[in-house]
Write a structure and sequence with these properties.
single chain; 97 residues; mainly alpha; two-stranded antiparallel sheet
Length: 97
């Protein structure tokens, strides 16, 4: 079986969702570190919490947009290169019921 072409829009949407999930995970880490900074007290506590909440909103959107663009560019490049070299050959095993 040879993958000769990929659907660019499907790949871009897949990459967008995957990267948005990573954005949420990274934002949660920022929130965790913000809470740790906030435990020291003072002005840092307000700043740490605000940065974590802003990251939870901004990072998934930013990562999703970048993922969509990267997926679209990657799909177009794959289709271009696959048209010249013939694509990627994979071997699959038919499962027997």
């Amino acid at each position: 079986m040879v993958i000769k072409r990929v659907a660019v829009l499907k790949l871009a949407v897949f990459q967008m969702v995957l990267m948005a999930i990573f954005g949420v995970l990274i934002a949660l880490m920022f929130m965790m570190f913000g809470a740790m900074i906030g435990s020291f007290g003072g002005h840092a506590s307000a700043i740490g919490g605000a940065v974590g909440i802003a990251a939870l909103v901004i990072f998934p959107i930013l990562y999703g947009v970048i993922g969509f663009i990267a997926g679209a560019v990657g799909g177009v490049l794959y289709n271009f290169v696959a048209s010249m070299v013939g694509g990627i050959e994979i071997e699959v095993d038919q499962a027997t019921p």
